[in-house]
Amino acid sequence: MRAHDGDMFDDEAMTLSLRAALEHHVDGLKLLSEYQPNTRKTQRENWRYANYYEAVLDLGQEFLGEKRPKGVWKKPYRQCFRNSSRAVFDHGWAYVEGYAMSEHGLMVEHAWNLTPDGHVVDLTWRRPEKSLYYGIVIDQETVSRLLVYHQVFGIIPEDWRIGAPLLKEGLFIPSTGLPPKEESWRS
Residue 120 in 3-state DSSP? Predict the structure, then answer.
């Protein structure tokens, strides 16, 4: 047990709740894909993952929220991908993307950082110490290459633009390299 501003949280039970919620979402998506006629199952038969929930569950890890370090200020709400991407270059922290559960039990797609000694830094949420996280740590070089390539923040949400290498191979950059940049989707 760990104290949080007078409240007591059972860290193990909260972590199990987050993992159970993610697994529940994966099971639901698998059921939906079985009953939808236009899922193009043949295209995905050789893919490593059927969906992003499954990829995050397999490649990700659990993290407990912590208060931000002294002198590190909260950044704007609803800009977690931007806030966390910038921190990679401003502070040298690792970038993590996946899902997080707030103190209210709401689970959302989210991005945060890890310090070199493994502490969670969430620049977006007001009380990250009352949250749980489950995500994939992404190295600085990959973050840099994909930010320049996509010209938008967020790595997992943009995976489809380069042929879904995360789903196909479990990689953020395809084993064949980044495809030629197409500008048609931006116009």
Answer: strand
- Residue 98: inside a domain: yes
For residue 146, the enclosing domain spans 2-177
DSSP 17-53: HHHHHHHHHHHHHHHHHHH-TTS-HHHHTT-S-SSHH
Which of 149, 160, 185 minimizes the C-alpha distance to 43? Answer: 160
pTM value surpassing 0.85 = no
184 belongs to a structural domain: no
Q: Length of the chain, please?
A: 187
Q: b or e along 137-154 (b: 16 or more beta carbons within 10 Å of the residue's beta carbon)?
A: bbeeeebeebbeebeebb
Exposed, middle or buried: residue 34 (CB in 10 Å: 0-12, 13-18, 19+)?
A: exposed
* Residue that has been written with the tokens 């919620």 in this structure: 21
Domains contained in the chain, number: 1
152 domain residue, yes or no? yes
Cα 180 off chain centre by: 25
pLDDT digits (tens, 9 = 90+) for 88-136: 999 999 999 998 888 777 788 999 999 999 999 999 999 999 888 889 9
Q: Are 51 and 80 in contact (CB under 8 A)?
A: no
**171, burial (CB in 10 Å: exposed 0-12, middle 13-18, buried 19+):** middle
Q: Is 161 domain-assigned?
A: yes
